[in-house]
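Quick question, first post here. What does this chain look like in 3D?
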Amino acid sequence: MWVLCLGVLVIVCIVTHWVYRWRNPSCNGKLPPGSMGLPLLGESLQFFSPNTSSDIPPFIKQRMKRYGPIFKTNLVGRPVVVSADPDLNYFIFQQEGKVFQSWYPDTFTEIFGKQNVGSLHGFMYKYLKNMMLNLFGPESLKKMLSEVEEAACRTLQQSSCQDSVELKDTTARMIFDLTAKKLISYDSTKSSENLRENFVAFIQGLISFPLDIPGTAYHKCLQGRKKAMKMLKKMLQERREMPRKQQKDFFDYVIEELRKEGTVLTEAIALDLMFVLLFASFETTSLALTYAIKLLSDNPLVFKQLQEEHEAIIERREDPNSGVTWQEYKSMTFTFQLITETVRLANIVPGIFRKALREINFKGYTIPAGWAVMVCPPAVHLNPTKYQDPLAFNPKRWEGMEPSGATKNFMAFGGGMRFCVGTDFAKVQMAVFLHCLVTKYRWRPIKGGNIVRTPGLQFPNGFHVQITEKDRRKREPEYTTIY
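> Answer (accepted):
Ran it through. Tokens below.
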């Protein structure tokens, strides 16, 4: 009997010691304050909880209030330092590749692929970044401007023939088709397989508890990725068997790189890159565009100023029916302010992860080597000491100060050497769509929809609008009369 009691006592001591070490990780200095949560789970359940607030996510806000702008936690078994401190955020971005490197949880790697661009470092990352700049750089965007406008006009025309449209889904379809055409010459009207459907299944479980069991959102997400990757691989193999003489899309560029002797590019890296580009280009931009139109619907005075800017562009043209030029696009000052304010409020990517390569001391706290660090843009973008009335939609706050890159107080597109290469592409699509919308159409919200925020993305679902063409032969009534 005493042997059994001794065994139980030993087990209790081991478990107690393990729980103590879990709650109190070893450190050579002073760890940031915070809680490591439950053993194994950490604070994952609280972190993954969705919310409908427009404010800083409750998980972050509650801990900021209790511990300050720098605190520790544990997510899916991984110790993490969360930073809502602008100085630490800026330091993290500037020290990319030296003190910190890009890192995401294993679940993200499973979703986006082991060779995805976010998980690559050094030379390989710079190599892929240069490849992407060939597609999304200024010179390429100038050539794409007419295609973007054509896609926007076609989408709005089709939408005006329906009783109402769900705006997020409509803009996502438009952007996906445009991007897929540019990347892989994919035409949804001619393909027997619906590539976008697989991405929709993927997105619905993207930010969910990582339980890979049939029926769970995470399992559906992985299945969506598997099907999409199977289609992309098939397309790439078919193209490699029948290469084209002239480059027309990104696949052609990839194939040429794969054929080079001594190339560092592999088919696996190319496919993971293609998957990430398709996802990032259409999902995040459609979210931002839908949110912008919802904000315009709620703020008629802002809409009026936007409309005046775009009507003035048309009035200056010799031919009012000609398309948007690059010079006109660059002149859309208030539009860029509106886009910047929209992404500040939207916080589409409210968590940016890095990993400490060595021990770091900052503002009296120690971040141990190997620990993850999560930069929290919403806490910066909604900081009342930096933005007056931070939850208010006020594009004019950006007059004369629209950021072209990341700053300590604005990081909607990332920062440092990993600043999003698709930023300009997203701005072109949003600006041109808004130009077509406010100069040629009127819209009326049918249902307001829900903004459900999660730790990864927010989903403005159910925002239905009725779109009608303007009669430019007579003066339209003031937009504010709709509301």
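The radius of gyration is 24 Å.
Confidence is low (pLDDT under 50) at residues 452-459, 473-483.
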